[in-house]
């Protein structure tokens, strides 16, 4: 039926050149100290915007929207079809085999990681081997269920393969899981997943990859039929892959989720309920309690179709060119310090995530200046990767303890960190030039001098510059 085919299949090829104008909100002006300016988004590592054709396809789907599964009405049947087709599209996107693996939809990567932590059968003394590079979401859930050990860093901030090997040998069969990021949200380093998967499996453990940063920028292959190099568990979030309608994805082996009770119970996870018992349904519904985010799932499928239409080769080439250009030009500005690989020639081997500081200007102040004077959105701080950023900044144990006490006292004024610019497939060199212009001004001290810090939040704002957000989006 044509009407259903149009929901998930894009007949018109999208090119990279189309994306800057298709980005939803392109050309939007925002208030600054110097009058309205066109907004530039270099905060893609946190969340990505979407595109007009994706938003339009979601609106188009809304006329058919209904709840999924067990509904006999046409709209329910169509919505169920689209929802399950989207699951197949996601599986294909990461090279999963639905005969052996299951795609479970969650709220986000964080929920997906917590779900794995709660469903794997850890026993006392078991070890989860993770790294000092991780986002907190791939650190904190494991602390609740097992002993956590960390793979150390090399001097340049990359992971030490030697330390990884040493820890596998030292802890032996006690290592049940290696949980590792596919790419860093701080330095953009891409980890050698083949190497980590191979050594993990040789040690008799399973490997989980947090692909939240990797999925928007590089192809992923879980290698379901390669026992040596396969990824046993993978998570990522749609809001970082140009589908900010909300949904997370967990792909993994079926067996742990088939055993025992589901993590959450309620509607949709049961076949039969009596006064005494509940009998759980089959996967994946068993792990998707309640009404799922149907719109978010369909939006993610549409974005995957867009990425496949553009092609990874063009995406990698474009983002690498942006990264190389930014690295080369930033190093010409006196006082700029970049964390991670600064060689533009290596841009294709990393993501377009650049963390930097500008002279002695506090990172939070630099981020505020970029926003309030340049209309440029970046992120500042530790990016939910405190262990990694403190390592890169060489924060001592003594200073770290002092900072902990200050934060507990609700004082974030001395919080260490950097500013982070991160590229999406729609960004341009012209936008980078605006960032470079503002960076030069900050380095030279050519900015408004009356910024006031909120010590509790650790954030700066220009004195007396109030914004009525209701004017821009009334609620």
Name a few traits of the molecule.
four-stranded antiparallel beta sheet, single chain, Aspartate Aminotransferase, domain 1, 475 residues, Aspartate Aminotransferase, domain 2, seven-stranded mixed beta sheet, alpha/beta
Description of the molecule:
- The protein is of the alpha/beta class and 475 residues long.
- The protein has 2 domains: 2-50 and 311-470, Aspartate Aminotransferase, domain 1; 58-308, 3-Layer(aba) Sandwich (Aspartate Aminotransferase, domain 2).
- 35% of the residues lie in helices and 17% in strands.
- The protein has 15 helices and 19 strands.
- It has helices at residues 2-8, 19-22, 52-62, 74-94, 109-119, 140-143, 161-171, 193-202, 255-258, 294-310, 312-330, 363-374, 386-392, 397-408, 429-443; strands spanning 29-30, 37-38, 40-41, 101-106, 127-131, 147-151, 175-181, 206-210, 233-237, 248-253, 270-273, 278-280, 336-339, 353-358, 376-377, 379-381, 418-422, 451-454, 459-462.
- Strands 4-10-9-8-7-5-6 form a 7-stranded mixed sheet, with helices on both faces. Strands 13-14-17-16 form a 4-stranded antiparallel sheet. A two-stranded antiparallel ribbon has the order 1-2.
- A hairpin with a 4-residue loop joins β18 and β19.
- α3 packs antiparallel against α10.
- The longest helix is centred in the first third of the chain and has 21 residues, at 74-94.
- The radius of gyration is 23 Å and the shape is globular.
- It starts with a helix and ends in a 13-residue tail after the last strand.
- Residues 1-5 have low confidence and may be disordered.
